[in-house]
Amino acid sequence: MTLKRFMNEAISPWMREEGPDSDIVLSSRIRLARNFSSVSYPIFADRVKLTEIRDFFKEEYEHRSFQDYEDFAFISIQDLSDVEKRVLVEKHLISPHLSKNEGAAATIISKNEQVSIMINEEDHIRLQLYFPGFQLSKALEKAFQLDDWLEEKVNYAFDETRGYLTSCPTNVGTGMRASVMMHLPALAMTKQINRMIPAINQLGLVVRGIYGEGSEAQGNIFQISNQITLGKSEEDIIGDLQSVVNQLIEHERNARSHIMKQSSTKLEDRIYRSYGVLDYSRVIGSNEAAICLSNVRLGIDLGLIKNVSRNILNELMILTQPGFLQQYAKATLSADERDKLRATLIRERLQLENR
C-alpha cells in the first residue's frame, strides 16, 4: 500500500459498503488514546524519545496485517507536503492536530483505510476504527481486539483506580471517544437541531462538525460523540450514545416524513434545484457545494432521485474539499481556481454516473 493510493482515491474502500441506518448514519468510529508507561506525554517528551516510539511502530507494524486489516502502511508526517496532509485530514485518516505535529509524528493506515493509528499526536497512540452506518458495538469489539494486539508489545500507562492515563485529563479512564457521523438535513431545515444540541450536551455528549472539535457542520453533517471517559465502562458509554443516536434517527425520519406531507412541492423544488446547480455550475464554493450535495443526498434517500447512487455523493463530499482539489490538479490553487475545478469535477462525476 502506497501513499499514492491514499491520495488519489477520495472514498475509502470501507465507505463503499452499506451499514445499518446508512441513510442517516454515515459512519461509526471508535478512538482509543493510549500512552507508553515509561515515556513522558508527547507535549513534554524530548524529540529523541518520540523518535524512538515512531521508529518502533515502523519496525513492528509496517506491512503487518491483523485479521481483516491488511498491509498497514507507515507514513511519517514530516515527509508529507501540506496538500498531502490536508488530504489525509479530509479523509479522516489523521487529525488536524497530527497534521501540524511534524517532528516525530506518524500514522499507520490499513489497506482498506478502516484503521488508522496516529503516533505522537496528543498521546503516543491514538487508534481509530471506522464502520459504515450505525455499528458502534461492532466497532468497539474490533477496537478492543486491535488494542489487545498492540498491547502485546506496548506497556500502556495504566492506573488501577483511574484507568488509562492520557495527556488530556478529559480522556483519562477508558481513553475512548465513540462517535457517529450523521446526516440530519430535515432536523436542520425545521430548526429542531438547534434545540436538540443543548439537550444532547446535558447528557454528557457533544455535537461537532464533520472534522471534530472546532469544525462546522458542513452539509448538515453532524458528529455526535461522548465527553465522559472516566467513571463509566466502554459498554455503558456506547449504550448512552446509541440511545441518543436512535432518538435522533427517529426524529430525523419523522421530520422527513412531515416535510414530505406538508411541503412536498417546496422540498422537491429545493432538491432538484440543488441537483441542477451541481449539474450545470461552472463555479461553486465549498459551502454551496456541501449544501447542494446534502439536498441531493436527501432526494436519493427519499426516492426522488433515482439515477445517482449514495456513494457518489459520499465521494463528492470529500473530492471537492480544498486538499483533494489541489491534489487532483497537482498544483497550488487560488480560491477562484478551486471553485472552478470543484464545479468541473462535480459535473463530470454526475454525467459519468448518468451514463
UniProtKB/TrEMBL annotation:
Function recorded in the entry: Catalyzes the specific phosphorylation of arginine residues in a large number of proteins. Is part of the bacterial stress response system. Protein arginine phosphorylation has a physiologically important role and is involved in the regulation of many critical cellular processes, such as protein homeostasis, motility, competence, and stringent and stress responses, by regulating gene expression and protein activity.
HAMAP family: Prot_Arg_kinase (MF_00602)
Residue span of motif RDXXRA motif of the pArg binding pocket involved in allosteric regulation: 338-343
Domain of life: Bacteria
The EC number(s) this enzyme carries: 2.7.14.1
Annotated control of activity: Appears to be allosterically activated by the binding of pArg-containing polypeptides to the pArg-binding pocket localized in the C-terminal domain of McsB.
Keywords: Allosteric enzyme, ATP-binding, Kinase, Nucleotide-binding, Transferase
Protein name: Protein-arginine kinase
Residues that coordinate or bind ATP: 27-31, 92, 126, 177-181, 208-213
Catalytically driven reaction(s): L-arginyl-[protein] + ATP = N(omega)-phospho-L-arginyl-[protein] + ADP + H(+)
SUPFAM superfamilies given in the database record: Glutamine synthetase/guanido kinase
Gene: mcsB
InterPro entries to which the protein is assigned, alphabetical: Arg_Kinase, ATP-guanido_PTrfase, ATP-guanido_PTrfase_AS, ATP-guanido_PTrfase_cat, Gln_synth/guanido_kin_cat_dom
Keyword field contains Transcription: no
Gene Ontology MF: a single term: protein arginine kinase activity
Family: Belongs to the ATP:guanido phosphotransferase family.
Keyword ATP-binding in annotation: yes
